[in-house]
Amino acid sequence: MAPSARLAMYKVGFYSKDIRVIDAVATDVLAGMDQAIEDGVDIMSLSLGFKETPFFKNPIAIGAFAALKKGIFVTCSAGNSGPHGYTMLNGAPWLTTVGAGTVDRELGARVTLGDGDITVTGISMYPENLFISRIPLYFGHGNRRKELCDWNSLDSKDVAGKFVFCDYDNESSVFRSEDIYGTDIAGAIFSSDDGEFQEPAEFYLPFVTANAKDGDLIKTYILNTTNATVSVRFGITTLGTKPAPKVAYFSSRGPDRRSPWILKPDILAPGYLILAAWVPNRGFAPIRDHDYLLTDYALVSGTSMSCPHTAGVAALLKATHRDWSSAAIRSAMMTTADVTDNANGRIIDMTTAVAGTPLDFGAGHLNPNKAMDPGLVYDIEVEDYINYLCALNYTSQQIQIITGTSNFSCKYASLDLNYPSFIVILNKTNSTTSTFRRVLLNVADTASIYNAVVEAPPGMKVVAQPSTVNFPGKYTKAEFNLTVEINLEVDSVAPQSDCFGNYGFLSWNEVNGTHVIRSPIVSAIASAKNP
């Protein structure tokens, strides 16, 4: 992401052979963060998280506050416990918390039936650059057809050396490539619309997943052809696939259980099937019968992949704008993020295939080029975060644990941080009104005027006062109030997620200019487990 950056790695997790996981403990993480601060890093990227606890018990929140005071930008993974709400990790407001999105790239194989009359492209992550030519294609007929590819249902004598076609009914059957393990087949084609949810480890043999529509073509060909054959070319990469990005099914969703008054995640970044460097002497995924693939590069999914993307962009921003604070960098990313995909629709949720909400994608998908020149930013001082901790009703001792200082006052305690997003927590009443105070900072080189533009759905009334703000020059400020009224009695208001998620946007549009500073406004149902 930032080719000229210098990287320092700090090992805080250790592999446990007994439970085959990487495990990290609080003391190791804090020690690593403290060493990074002492070494003078500019950016911290933490692709890990602990169970959400009060911030004074969370090692990442504590370590990141120490980094904040040194001007270090800290970004963390949102977690992989989606797609339900209140599954966030790393919800402290001084962290930049990143969800995972898909990319517009699909890895696959080209399937040609018979003499080439029918050709389809399916999903495949089989790693060998392999071409299989005119091999017998097997499909169980008669009464066994519905049972084909269920566990232990294939007779190895029937399928040995052949390509097997497995027709999955998505409503009644779960696709599992391991169902045909140990049958001496040459490969398999699975007909399933769940192909995009597969992982590289499932392609330990030459497997292809065709969507249900293409699967019907293959099935019709087999049933109407004597001695059906298939040719398969692996290693096909398709670019520009639509729609993209999507919110990855595993990406944790907001709000944060410990700090629901700040919208989390902050932003979405690429985190699905990301090709990146891998330890070459550790097997990545099973391959063939009883072996593991050794590779210099591997495809991995997770918010652990999206977090470093944000760190890289933060490095580019900090190199370009040396005087920007961590909050300014986060604001630049958030207010210029994309909320539409490459099909010109709202970013969709991979799980539901319908439009997501800011509880899923935060302010939108990271757009590095736009973030370089945001026009305005929402800045936050260290004292503002302390006032937020005071408003959480933490004791002086608990705040001292987080901040590392006893020299503070809670005179101005407030949950209303100068954040680039707005969230309204709904209680049991049918109407809720919230007012937010915000301050905009002009980081452009020239004077400017901006007008407020509101996008609000039925049941949400949004008013910005004043609706026009003026900046005489660079580093001048303007204050405004945003009043949001949610009326749940409006007939067309319906929950968009398990946390509700009715949402709109506030944009500040530059008069006679190009800058647009957009912030999400979202409502969320209060969790019974909130502190």
Give a brief outline of the structure.
The protein has 531 residues and is of the alpha/beta class.
Describe the structure.
With 531 residues, this protein is α/β, with parallel strands linked by helices. The protein folds into two domains: 13-103 and 247-380 and 417-525, 3-Layer(aba) Sandwich (Rossmann fold), CATH 3.40.50; 105-239, 3-Layer(bba) Sandwich (Glucose Oxidase, domain 1). Helices cover 18% and strands 30% of the residues. The chain contains ten helices and 28 strands. The strands form eight sheets. Strands 7-6-12-8-9-10-11 form a seven-stranded mixed sheet, covered by helices on one side. β3, α2 (59-69) and β4 (73-77) form a beta-alpha-beta unit. α1 runs parallel beside α2 (59-69). The protein is globular, with a radius of gyration of 26 Å. It starts with 12 loop residues before the first strand and ends in a 6-residue tail after the last strand. Residues 142-147 and 170-174 have low confidence and may be disordered.
